[in-house]
Design goal:
By secondary structure, this protein is mainly β. About 0% of the residues lie in helices and about 65% in strands.
């Protein structure tokens, strides 16, 4: 046995924000805590990993703008277990996950999700792996006005060193989600409508999925790395208020440039589109454009400073839901 490895990480952040429009002050705390346990068991060459992650955050700008909330305190807890084994160049992994999301400012986002996944793979030339990932999931909404859903997805792709300068993951697949019917209460008719309850109808949402996450470094410019991500998913749970399931797709580009030995500049620009899916939806459509400029400086081995400016522009077909938000953050990090 290799023994047991347990890693615990915790941190506390304090945020003080001041609004130039409205002369408002706001203070908030965040306390992300993670616990990871690696437990190799005596199953021959099988590897068993258990992971527990808990986080609390109440100052996520992009998440708040995405669901049109001025503030989104959120508690998230995820427990997962993975069983994997290599058979020479071939491999297989089994994974089970439970995720709980709780948002006291917006109970419509509260949900519990269960997922199981099976991923066979085949390593090619010790550089990249071909994989086939299959996932089945259940989402239980805590809000009485949000429907439960279940679904599955399958995708094939390649991950690893694709060329000497290009690394990342490319996959394509198909996803299907079934939105379950839900009774909201008495409807219309005799005896207060108890025989004709108001119901959100069942529905099916499906379509192709695509994921692309690539990182490129030119051999003549080793201090600069370019990264691009693209994603498309026809059925993601609880991304918008009053929405059971949403279709989402988007693209992002990042450049990490090491100006000096201690200073790194990282600009980012991204766009995402989210819209309601299913017959019971109210037809929400949201586009987000995000531009970030991030500069980090390593002051010492234990102390680093980060200056970040973020601009988010939100476009929506709902009333009073289109606006722009800017934020400037100075962060100091000390590692004990």
């Amino acid at each position: 046995s290799e023994g047991e490895t347990v890693t615990i990480g915790s941190g506390v952040t304090y945020n003080h924000s001041f609004s130039l429009n409205g002369n408002r002050d706001r203070q908030s705390f965040g306390s992300p805590v993670t616990l990871n346990a690696l437990v190799p068991l005596n199953f021959g060459r099988w590897r068993f990993v258990v992971s527990e992650q808990f986080s609390f955050e109440d100052n996520e700008l992009v998440n708040a703008v995405a669901i049109n909330e001025p503030r989104t305190a959120s508690y998230n807890n995820q427990v997962s277990a993975t069983l994997a084994r290599n058979f020479g160049q071939a491999s297989i992994a089994f994974e089970g996950t439970r995720s709980d999301a709780f948002s006291p400012d917006d109970p419509e986002l509260d949900n519990t999700t269960y997922q199981v996944a099976v991923t066979p793979g085949f390593q090619v030339r010790d550089k990249y792996t071909l994989f086939w990932r299959n996932v089945y999931g259940l989402t239980y909404a805590h809000s009485p006005s949000t429907q439960n859903s279940e679904g599955y997805s399958t995708e094939v792709g390649v991950a690893g060193v694709i060329t000497p300068q290009l690394t990342g993951t490319i996959s394509i697949g198909f996803a299907h989600s079934y939105i379950k019917a839900k009774k909201l209460g008495p409807g219309e008719g005799i005896f207060g409508g108890i025989f004709n309850p108001a119901t959100l109808r069942a529905d099916n949402v499906d379509g192709p999925t695509t994921t692309l996450a690539l990182s490129y470094a030119h051999p003549l410019s080793p201090n600069t790395t370019y990264s691009i991500t693209f994603y498309n998913n026809p059925g993601v749970s609880a991304l918008q208020k009053s929405s059971t399931i949403s279709e989402v797709y988007g693209i992002g580009f990042t450049a990490n440039h090491r100006l000096t030995r201690t200073i790194t500049l990282s600009p980012y620009v991204g766009w995402s589109h989210t819209q309601d899916a299913g017959r019971s939806a109210i037809g929400q459509k949201t586009d987000l454009v995000c531009v970030t400029m991030n500069m980090q400086r390593l002051i010492s081995q234990s102390l680093r400073a980060q200056l970040e400016y973020t601009y988010v522009s939100r476009f929506s077909n709902q009333p009073n839901a289109t606006y722009d938000v800017s934020r400037l953050i100075l962060k100091m990090t000390y590692i004990f």
